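HDOD domain-containing protein
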Amino acid sequence: MRIVIVGEDAGRAGEFEESLSYFDLGWDVHWLAEADAALSLTEVDVILCGLRVGAVPGTALLGQMSSMHPEAVRILLLDQDQDSSQLQGLDCAHRLLSRPLDAGELIEAVDSVAELRQVLGSEELKQAVGRIGSLPPPPRLYLELSRLLRDPDASNAAIAQMLSQDPAIVAKVLRLCNSAYFSGGREITDIRAAVTRLGHQTLLRLVLASEAFGPTQLAGKEREAIQDRALRTSRLARRLLAGPSAELAATAGLLAEVGKLLPGVSNGTEGSTGPHYAEAGAYLLGLWGLPMPIVEGVAFQHRPGRLKASGFWVAGAVHVASSLVAGTPVDEAYLRNVNVIDRLPQWRDLVEPAAAEAA
């Protein structure tokens, strides 16, 4: 396996590789000073860099490497006192690790991504998805709106104009905007007012919900129940993390049950057959090209302890939020391991009632 470390102190190379040698993995480690050197590589299995590599933002470098080497594991290195809530572009990285880089932590990070890929690439899952005559299409408007919102000069008028190209989406967004979750007491009747009320990230998720939970084989009431849980899970998951991580958790929470919309998958109840809906949903999101932390959060929503990365991040937030909303047991052993068990009572108090109860 070829490991590429860009822009870090090459003086630590000998010390780091000596530590790595104890694990006897046979990794080929390269230390590069400049981003251009990384972009010229033809083979990369894992790439690591900090927030800046010379004049190049580390997130931009990882974004380029994602296009050039989509199979490579991308890791962003942060100083230990770095406030991650102030960071932008975290979705370009599969993992965040602290400086100074630790060999054991790197191995855990790489192994966990490999495990996720093994889940998404299981033969049972491939066959189940292959038997589906027509997969739900990628959320076109969501992806277009995501690109527009990366422009800091994007106006609410431009956003409203883009959304207006799909009247069905406009109708669904307005319906959700006026629901018990988002209503501010005054009815919203036009999409520009919805943009102003909701804010860009919430609006983006409502568009995603409208597209992801469109026409399916599920009956109307069942689909509405899934969408109701999705909105409550999303809002709760967002409150469990900070900064950009909160937005990733909110989107993953929104899509936690999207796999249930696929035929031939297990709904998680005893006796049901086929691949589990969490894995199937994660596979679908991978096909759609959504960021890895979101895919990972959906795939591991019921077993966050299987992730070898330390700390409480997106998968943990989705697990807690989806369990509390659905009324299923929370993995308290996992919460103890990541040192957040004391926050569980507070999180329970944040659970919103179902739409039928709130109406």
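thats it. The CA atoms of residues 106 and 203 lie 36 Å apart. The chain has two domains: 2-120, 126-358. bye
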